[in-house]
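Exercise 3.2. Students should predict the tertiary structure of the chain below and write it as structure tokens, then compare their answer with the key that follows.

Predict this chain's 3D structure.
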Amino acid sequence: MTISRRKMLLGTAASASLAAIGGSLALISDRSRAAPAWSLPAKRPFKVIENTWIPMPDGVRLAARIWIPDGADAHPVPVVWEYLPYRLWDDLRWRDDKTGENLAPYGVAFVRVDIRGTGNSEGVIVDEYDVPELTDGVKIIAWLAKQSWSNGSVGMRGISWGGINALQIAAMQPPELKAIMPMGCVVDRYTDDAHYMGGAYGEQNMGWGSAFKGDMAAPPDPQVVGEHWEALWRQRLEATPAILRTWSTHQRYDSYWKRGSIATDYAAIKCPVYVVDGWGDPYENIIGELLANLKVPRKGLLGPWGHIFPNLATPLGLDWPYEEVRWWQQWLEGIDTGIMDEPMLRVYLMYEADSQAFPDEVPGRWVAEDVWPSPRIASSNLYFDAGGRLSPKPNSRDHIKYVGDKIVGLTKPQWVYGRPTEFEQTPDDRNSLLFDSRPLDHDLEILGYPIAKVRVSADVPVAQIAVRLTEVTPEGKSWLVSYNVLNLTRRESMEQPTALKPGEFYDVELPLYMIAHRFKRGNRIRVAVSESLWPLVWPSPQIATLQIALGASHLVLPVRPIPAREAPFSIPVIHAAKAGNGYANGVHWVKTPLPTSPGAQMPTRDASGRIRYDREAQPTSTFVSAVGTTTTTASSRIIEITEGDPTSCRMELDHTSSWKRGDWDCTIQFGGDLTATAEEFHLKEWVVAKKGDVEIFRRETPSTIKRDLL
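Answer key:
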């Protein structure tokens, strides 16, 4: 993230003080005119092919499910596909069904493929977004284009892994790939994904790495692959690598992370791109960068949800088939749907933080920008001032000291899970260096990347800096708006970090996560500075004391003037109702339970200062009636640290998954355990497999890894 974030374009033509920004400007988009009339095609029946083998040149067969609209053999249709390591036969069948049901009735075939070595596909997988996966993807696209029911035009969609490999495969320029719709994706594998947040070791490197081992080691289903399923399973188990060691060894932005990072060459993508995400998902951060750097036809959309498809989001989601089918008709069928006459970027501008509104809808409105970066977004500087003030002008030349011996980050414990992912911020604010504005005399709206520009020194060679932007109510409640963290040894380069010289000041820029937010009149803007955010990132090797230069340090807000009216929002909105379902005035109301974050919990703290997240999840079983399989998952997590002792940090994650149908009974246990001294990481990983009650495989891998300015 940070490499690309330093290049973020805010589209700012001028700087203005906070006091100079305000009022309503009637800046109305030319594109707010009515788009050409378009509506979803009439629904038609479709068929589902439960399993098809797609052959690869090396003889490996990949498993696929296919949804084909009726009549496609006589009148071929466009094809959209999704490509994941998450089992299509059982675990994600429900979600794939929803996607197929959103596309096939409207004349778009949908294909879901298991990546080689996962689900029911043959072969092995040894890393994420590996060369075999991407090479297979190009071959799959060519195969899809040649099917009798295909018109030869292929689109690619997906969220998270499926969005990430859609971008990477598009950069390989398969000629049949005409457009993509990536969601929750990344452009830089090192900083954007669940690995190194601002060049600091992320908790999600452990969280995701321990879970990914289960995707690599899970068995295929004999119902699909036949009697040799166990041989295929054992092949996978033997191939499952110590993936956490791999990721923990590559601590710099080296060639390992650059491969597959499209930020190294945006021009490689030649097809149209529609990128989508929610504000509650850290992957949303790259949408502005994609729109700014791609040169192809492109669109972006950000809503008030998390790491989830827009049609599955609650309590406020979108009737997504309307928008998605429109996109595919535009680029896979050559129909002018008017979608490209509408603004490039549409976002939900939030009037409250998600955690403040939870469990209700986040209040706000949909806004639009014709282009991104937007020329009407203006920079507003707020300077760190004496007395903990944020001032429109740089008044002070003093320095202020901050000792990083307190744990900060407990109100933002999760990087990505569900809703919400944070709490009211006051407990962390008490242990941070705070700068507050005066109460606002008008509503202030921002859209883009707030930037903390800080002149800072440290008394140790390795230190971090974290900045949280919050909104403070008259009652003193502090609600998170945006944040980020930077390993200061990566201040100039993620590729070639350099140790800090104790006592020497450095000017660093820390772009915060992209956001659209309204600060309410009467509330205050707060900047909270700390040395780290735990448990989001691993602590520095030693307690660091930071010196911040006031006056030279400031916050840059991307201020969006409030127009007299906004461009119309064309996508039907789905609201969750307390009771009943209905439809009126273009709005759907659906009775839906609200999801909560499984990691949104406050830790325990004992008398010795030991802070601990301790979760022992009860096994959860699901009967997949379509295939007769019962799947069961369980996980435990221990994340702990003693305040004042950064080398006491420990993260242990253990997972169990099982699949049972009749006498087919398979279980895998997998996880990782990480501790560290000031000089080294000590890591242990494991994979254990059982057939029934009999253990058939066990591998435990200990590793000692030198900390590289981390």
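Discussion points: The longest helix spans residues 131-145. The chain has 13 helices and 38 strands.
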